[in-house]
Write a structure and sequence with these properties.
With about 270 residues, the protein is of the alpha/beta class. It is built from 10 helices and 10 strands. Helices cover about 35% and strands about 15% of the residues.
Length: about 270
């Protein structure tokens, strides 16, 4: 059953009503998918082989709005992997987010995104980037997408979920990252963040989510779907080990999807 709305908790627009607020076309598509599938769940596919990646995508695809990948940890990535993953995404109506965390000058980023072994721009709908390199990184990613003939949504890292991260230690980092996004809203669909750091014109994707709060031995700090979606007013929960390491990843994805969607629906206007 959905959690009862606390009168003291803030309410917000539905995902569908926010499509006019978001300038980036991939962001608009993501909001539409979320509404159609009743899913605000992103699964992090932190697996190490092509077969495991494709199998997980097929298994959890019906439950998710986004699959988050790390192409550089796939030991046997080949020229067909991105296209095969894209076919599964089309079949189950989800977007692919390559968690590359670009952090270089624009010219270098063009090659990193459009070229190399992974040719990310050819199959990823969403990528993310650190803002430390300045706005040139956004232009570099857009040029890579243009070379691939595809639309791209960019997420800027405003906050991170790891203990002791320097983004949280530098008081100007987050507001300057938000300013960069606002100046490039047609390219930037939102943020990787722990809070809603700006307005409804952006989406907020939050990593480090499990059904119970806690942490791991390497500094990851976990939040619950209720805390992320109700208290923090973010939009998409990113779940990794809670799904891909489960005995039954599909059942785990269904459980997280229900918990996240119920948390969201408890807050809508």
């Amino acid at each position: 059953m959905p959690e009862q709305k606390d009168a003291k908790e803030p309410s917000r627009k539905t995902y569908g009503k926010r499509t006019d607020d978001v300038a980036n076309p991939v962001g608009k598509r993501l909001l539409q998918i979320m509404g159609e599938k009743e899913s605000n769940l992103c699964v992090a596919a932190d697996v190490s082989t092509k077969s495991a990646l494709l199998a997980l995508a097929e298994e959890v695809g019906p439950e998710i709005c986004i699959l988050k990948t790390h192409a550089d940890i796939i030991s046997d990535w080949d020229a067909s992997t991105g296209a095969e993953l894209g076919e599964i995404a089309d079949k189950h109506n989800f977007l692919i987010f390559e968690d590359r965390k670009f952090a270089d000058i624009g010219n270098t980023v063009v090659g990193q995104c459009a070229g190399g072994v992974h040719r990310i721009a050819e199959w990823a709908h969403i990528v993310n980037a650190h803002s430390v390199a300045g706005p040139g990184i956004i232009q570099g990613l857009l040029k890579a997408a243009e070379q691939a003939g595809r639309e791209l949504g960019i997420l800027l890292l405003a906050e991170m979920s790891s203990e002791g991260n320097l983004a949280m230690a530098c008081p100007d980092y987050m507001p300057k990252t938000v300013d960069m996004a606002k100046s490039n809203s047609s390219a930037v669909l939102g943020f990787i963040s722990q809070n809603k750091v700006a307005g409804d014109e952006f989406l907020y994707l939050t990593p480090g989510v499990q059904l119970a709060p806690g942490g791991d031995a390497l500094g990851q700090q976990y939040n619950t779907p209720h805390k992320v979606l109700v208290e923090k007013q973010c939009d998409v929960v990113i779940v990794g080990r809670g799904v891909y390491k489960a005995d039954d990843p599909k059942a785990a994805a269904q459980e997280y999807r229900r918990a996240a969607w119920d948390a969201y629906t408890s807050t809508i206007l």
